[in-house]
Design brief:
Layout: H1 2-15, E1 23-29, H2 41-46, E2 51-54, H3 66-78, H4 80-88, E3 90-93, H5 97-100, H6 112-123, E4 139-143, E5 150-154, E6 166-170, E7 177-181, H7 192-202, E8 209-214, H8 232-245, E9 249-253, E10 259-264, E11 273-278, E12 296-301, E13 306-312, E14 319-325, E15 331-338
Parallel strand pairs: 1-2, 2-3, 5-8, 8-9, 9-11
Antiparallel strand pairs: 1-13, 4-5, 6-7, 10-11, 10-12, 13-14, 14-15
């Protein structure tokens, strides 16, 4: 009998069945001011993620001084709790405007090639990784094996983004000064080379689940801040590319200092497309206001948060649980996307 169990064990190991996991845990977040208390890392570490995804604004620099930018990244990376996270999981991600180097910045920022080096160093991406061979910081990371492969696609929504015009006005109700962006109707976000790269990444037939990391929100379209909807042609192109891929895709985003789930359903897709926004690791809104989002599912969360994605592999299709998490183990919101329901 003992020899039978040994033989079975060898068979399972050889077949890789024991290497398969019941679930994969991924955490992400954005908007982390290195000068503020870093309370959230203990909460992230407690979830034991396989991967941490930076969603942008990983530090707050807003500078053309690269020595200052490096010092801020060094401070962020030296935090003892963040170092524990680095030792326990893989780190990946992208940038947004404040770590890119200029508030609300786009393709005209003169230091973007210098800034790129410090982001990639911070993420631990060494040469000769392909991301060093092209302009911008877009790149991908694949984790898992066999039927549990997940590809994280880190978009660069800054290096190639066309200009938007910020307009000031006085709110007739509150008499406060307000700003909003006029739509750049034909403007682009990604640039030709990144669009081509994204199409190729989504055509990877070996991947069971794609997570697209966009620093700015993709689906929410009604608020007055930065978003893909400020570039309607580019947003339409992105959504159509995702739908045409026929792949399982979830979007994660940051930037806003709030958390929410936005959902859109398109005729070409069998399942709803979710944009999971989790932003504000160290800070959130100082005051609340009503913000419309016709695509929002559940409540708007105005708290310090990080996002948690748990992929369950026990069914024929992955089951993806998305949670907005906060301090003191607070679960603020949850959305379940069970791909078994859309076969």
């Amino acid at each position: 009998m003992k020899s039978l169990w040994i033989a079975l064990a060898m068979l399972f190991c050889a077949s890789g069945l024991w290497a398969q996991s019941k679930e994969t845990i991924i955490a992400f977040g954005s908007c982390d001011d290195e000068d503020e208390p870093q309370e959230m890392w203990k909460e992230v570490i407690a979830q034991k993620p396989s991967v941490w995804i930076w969603g942008g604004d990983n530090v707050y620099a807003d500078t053309h001084d690269m020595a200052l930018l490096k010092a801020k990244y060094d401070k962020q990376k030296s935090n003892p709790e963040y170092q524990k996270l680095m030792r326990m999981c893989t780190i990946t991600g992208t940038w947004d405007d404040h770590d890119y180097g200029v508030n609300d910045g786009g393709k005209l920022y003169s230091k973007k090639n210098d800034s790129k080096k410090y982001l990639l160093d911070f993420l631990g991406i060494a040469e000769p990784s392909p991301v060093w061979e092209h302009d911008g910081v877009y790149h991908s990371l694949t984790i898992g094996k066999g039927k549990q492969k997940i590809k994280i696609i880190n978009l660069d929504t800054r290096s190639f983004r066309d200009t938007v015009i910020k307009v000031s006005s006085i709110d007739s109700l509150t008499q406060k000064k307000m700003t909003h962006y006029e739509k750049n109707v034909d403007g682009d976000v990604l640039g030709d080379a990144q669009w081509q790269w994204l199409s190729e990444e989504l055509n990877d037939a070996s991947i069971e689940l794609f997570i697209i990391n966009s620093s700015i929100q993709v689906i929410a379209a009604e608020h007055r801040f930065e978003k893909w909807a400020n570039f309607p042609a580019a947003r339409k192109r992105l959504l159509e590319m995702i739908a045409a891929s026929k792949k399982r895709v979830v979007i994660v985003s940051g930037d806003r200092h709030i958390a929410e789930f936005s959902k859109i359903e398109m005729p070409a897709m069998k399942y709803p497309l979710i944009d999971f926004t989790s932003s504000g690791i160290t800070h959130t809104w100082s005051e609340s206001w009503v913000e419309l989002n016709k695509h929002r599912v559940g409540d708007l969360v105005i708290q310090k948060t990080f996002g948690l994605i748990t992929v369950n592999w026990t069914g024929k299709e992955p089951k993806v649980t998305m949670q907005v998490r906060g301090l003191a183990k607070a679960p603020y919101a949850e959305y379940l996307l069970d791909f078994n329901l859309y076969r």
